Amino acid sequence: MQKLIKRVQHASTLVKYSTTSDATTSVSIIGVHFHHIYSDRKKKEIVELARKNNISGFVRFGKPGRLLVQSDDNAVLKEYIKHIRQLRWQFMALRIQRTLTLKSGDGFSEFKTFENDKDLIQYMKEANMQDLFSELSNMPNRSKEEQTES
Predict the structure, then answer these.
(1) CB 121 within 8 A of CB 130
(2) Which class for 68: exposed (0-12), middle (13-18), buried (19 or more C-beta within 10 A)?
(3) Would you say 122 and 81 are in contact if contact means Cβ atoms under 8 Å apart?
């Protein structure tokens, strides 16, 4: 009986260990920079389409506009961005497109809207995704030829 108890205790320790391990999941993310997002029609479409397709992430309205979306289905994200791109934009640039391996609890759990960077950065910190903010915000380096033409 003593040996049986030790085996059961050992087995329960193994089960407990496996349920508390750092589970990971693979997700696709796409980040987009816009000159601005002011149109009520565009705002509504961005949010409704994301929620309809179970896409999580955020959109920051105003100037500049920012969109970062996450899904475990890359094809859904690509179709979403394709639809958003068809709306008329003064400037829209794809800044981030990759697959990430996230620990359990990391990443975005819902789709949110923001009007300022302070609240947006806090949401990104809570999702452990704050490293992507600078990548999403920075303008790409332009060549000297492009700068002189502007």
Answers:
(1) yes
(2) buried
(3) no
Peptide bond into 64 cis (omega under 30): yes
The values of phi and psi at residue 148, to 5°, are: -75, -25
* CATH annotation of 22-132: 3.30.70.100
| Structure confidence by residue, pLDDT tens digits, 68-94 | 999 999 999 999 999 999 999 999 999
**And the tokens for 34?**
């816009």
Taking the domains of the chain in order of start, what are their residue ranges?
22-132
* Long-range contacts of the stretch 137-142 (C-beta < 8 A, 24+): 137/33, 137/64, 137/66, 138/95, 139/33, 140/93, 140/95
∠ CA 92-98-101, nearest 5°, is 140
**102, 25 in Cβ contact below 8 A?**
yes
107 dihedral zone (left: phi>0; alpha: psi -120 to 50; beta): left
Encoded amino acid at 136, one letter: L
Angle at 79 between CA 70 and CA 46, to 5 degrees: 65
Indicate the pTM of the whole model: 0.76
